[in-house]
Amino acid sequence: MIRQATAADVSAIVDMARLFYGTTDYRKWADFNEETVKALAETLAKDHVLLVADEGGELKGMVALFVAPFMFNSELKAAYEVAWWVNPDSQGIGVGKALLAAIEPACKAMGCTAIQMVHLSTSPPQAAAIYESMGYAHTESSFTRIVKWQQ
Q1: What per-residue string of b and e applies to 83-118 under the rule 16 or more CB within 10 Å gives b?
Q2: Closest listed residue to residue 60, CA positions, set 91, 32, 27, 37
Q3: H, E, C per residue of the chain
């Protein structure tokens, strides 16, 4: 069952976020901060879109999006992905697709007219194929430079 996350899910979401973070290149320059992620999950569950795949009380995956005004036209709202994760033991059986399908009605209910998903350099190739099969178009790529400012 896909549902909106609650405060009771935050601990499991933090655990999934830790696993997700370990697969990203961000781990190379910033440590995972549990308190930061906990606060973010609480905010997303309360005021944004944070859906979980719940199988008998055990969370198998999540998708999280911030809802905000579109930066080029504040009359429109958009949802911006923070994370999309399925636990390794639940991958390949449709959990990820179910989460992705569930964000559209959740975002529509929040008044969004666009949904932006992210494809990381470390994302599995099938993620982009799933996006495209569900009608998403490639709109941008992101590049990160880690800088160390001199004091």
Answers
A1: bbbbbeebeeeebbebbbebbeebbeeeebeebebe
A2: 91
A3: CEEECCHHHHHHHHHHHHHHHHCCHHHHCCCCCHHHHHHHHHHHHHHCEEEEEEECCEEEEEEEEEEEEECCEEEEEEEEEEEEEECHHHCCCCHHHHHHHHHHHHHHHCCEEEEECCCCCCCCHHHHHHHHHCCCCCCCCCCCCCCCCCC
Q: What structural domains does the chain harbor?
A: 2-133 (3.40.630.30)
Question: Rounded distance, CA 29 to CA 81, Å?
Answer: 21
| Tens of pLDDT, residues 53-64 | 999 999 999 999
Which tokens is 78 given? 């958009």
The answer to whether 10 and 45 have CB atoms below 8 angstroms apart is yes
Question: Where residue 13 falls among pLDDT bands split at 50, 70, 90?
Answer: very high
